[in-house]
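Hello forum,

I keep getting stuck at the same step: I have a sequence, I want structure tokens, and every attempt I make locally crashes halfway through. Rather than fight my setup again tonight, could one of you with a working pipeline run this one for me? It's a single chain of 127 residues.
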Amino acid sequence: MHKILVVDDMPASREALVRALRHEGYQTQVARNGVEGMVKLKAETPDLVLLDQMMPEVDGLTFLTGLRRFPKWKQLPVIMFTGNQNKTNYAQAQNLGVVDYLIKANFTLPELLDRVRKALKPAAPAL
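Reply #2:
Ran it on my machine without issues. Output:
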């Protein structure tokens, strides 16, 4: 069973994500901001991180920058979701190795679940 860490400061968003993920059979942990997310990550490495970008204390890009400094988390799949449509933030997230980047207003839970499945699917062997 895959473990997913949901890092989001908005309770309604966080709860909806957790409910949908658990319904699909995933184990979940939650964090309300990047500081709490890093604590949870150090306690138990998940298989995927769903990361909000705009949060108090430590935002998603700062969290992601810190995460990528650790060799054991360099390849950890991260899907970032945000209400911010700033192209600079998108470019920064891409440079930090996110596997997907979603604008909150433009995705549905079924679409997010599909992207989670794809992010957790092992890469096909090279021919």
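DSSP finds five helices and five strands in the chain. If your local run keeps crashing, start a new thread with the error log.
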